[in-house]
Amino acid sequence: MSRFVVTGASGLLGLNLSLKISAFDEVFGIANTSPLKGLPFEIQVMDLVNDNFEKDVLEIYKPDAVIHCAAIANLEECEKNPDLAYQTNAVVPGEIAQQCKKRDVKFVHISTDAVFDGKSGNYSEDDPTNPLSVYAKTKRAGEENVQNQNPDAIIARVNFFGWSLSGTRSLAEFFFTNLITKNPINGFMDVHFCPLYVSHLSDLLIKMVSADLSGIYHVVSSDQMTKYEFGCAIADQFALDHRLITPISVNDSNLKAERSLNLTLSTKKLSTSLNVSIPSTLDGIKQFSDDYRNGYALKIRNYSIEN
Ligand SMILES: NC(=O)c1ccc[n+]([C@@H]2O[C@H](COP(=O)([O-])OP(=O)(O)OC[C@H]3O[C@@H](n4cnc5c(N)ncnc54)[C@H](OP(=O)(O)O)[C@@H]3O)[C@@H](O)[C@H]2O)c1
Predict the structure, then answer these.
(1) Angle at CA 67, nearest 5°, toward 73 and 194?
(2) Is residue 307 scored above 80 in pLDDT?
(3) Is the dihedral of CA 290, 293, 230, 108 positive or negative?
(4) Which residue's C-alpha comes closest to atom 12 of ligand 1?
(5) Are 194 and 265 in contact (CB under 8 A)?
């Protein structure tokens, strides 16, 4: 049995990942402002920017691996608070990477497809980055800090969807919630991406730790689609009306943070290193709906102290 620490354990990825690990290994979660209840694993509330992770977590819990999911992951919030975004997304990962290196603890840093400018697509791990928004720039700086401090670390560039604590965190939840209430919405027809279901992402991250990989990996779905097509696929899977979704250009939205248009990534390095086939987005949407029908979405929501 291994001992894992998962930061961002109240977030979309961190919570789903921690629940998965807790079924067979020990996991200790770190949240910041969202205390949870009734979890099958231990959780501590701390601010990674100001509190002492090494003394309060590594020294006491002595994990075999840290999976660092905590971040300011909201692009618009990063534009409003660039200094806090830099501290959280760039400085903190470098510090934890260095502490893990010192203690021989495997470190996994969660990064993003948004480190690319999206001018070409189908990016490999060796392609040059060119982040556009404050969020993307701070995440790329986080990658560099982690690489400098801990060359053994895994850096996973991800894009994912799933059921979250608030029910509003992922794009899939946005489409589902609006479609089921028959609320007309827009879907970007010019933003291409490779979203992986969070359960599939969690499985792959656990396999990457077991295989003791290191370096940068693209951990996204094996296929690609536009955000509009993604919304329609959710509608079809739940037998909802995809005509409620209007295809629009991202340039016609009033979002402040600049978005990269083609964030499709190649997963060849990952599938070869692990000798596995990577699930598609459509596989994920099917599982997303099966999990809903099995009560998983409700189970996640019920961990919130607000429910
Ligand atoms: N969602 C996506 O599709 C996507 C795409 C690409 C990359 N990513 C990356 O994937 C990772 C996970 O994203 P997510 O969508 O799961 O994020 P999320 O749902 O927004 O959760 C963020 C987590 O970080 C925690 N956090 C933020 N500031 C903190 C601080 N100062 N100290 C301690 N914890 C702090 C939050 O804690 P509280 O909520 O308790 O405050 C929360 O648990 C991030 O690194 C993100 O950049 C996400």
Answers:
(1) 55
(2) no
(3) negative
(4) 69
(5) yes
What CATH number did the domain enclosing 29 receive? Answer: 3.40.50.720
- Using the mean position of ligand 1's atoms as its centre, give its distance from the Cα of residue 11 in Å: 5
Candidates 111, 94, 71, 90; CA nearest to 151 is 94
Cα angle 201, 27, 93 (rounded to 5 degrees) comes to: 65
Nearest CA to ligand 1 atom 21: 11
Q: How many structural domains does the chain have?
A: 1
Residue 228 lies in a domain: no
Identity of the amino acid at 62: K
Give per-residue pLDDT as tens, 63-79: 999 999 999 999 999 99
CB-ligand 1 contact for 219 (6 Å cutoff) = no
The verdict on residue 247 lying in a domain is: no
Query: What number is the average pLDDT over the span 236-256?
Result: 93
Query: How many DSSP H helices and E strands does the chain contain?
Result: 13, 13
Residue range(s) defining the domain that contains residue 151: 3-167+194-223+265-285
Rounded to two decimals, what is the model's pTM?
0.97
State the residue for tokens 């770190």: 30
112 in any annotated domain: yes
- The span from the CA of 95 to the CA of 101, in Å, is 10
Q: Give the tens place of pLDDT for each residue, 85-131.
A: 999 999 999 999 999 999 999 999 999 999 999 999 999 999 999 99
56 lines ligand 1 (CB under 6 A): no
| Contact criterion met (CB below 8 Å) for 72 and 89 | yes
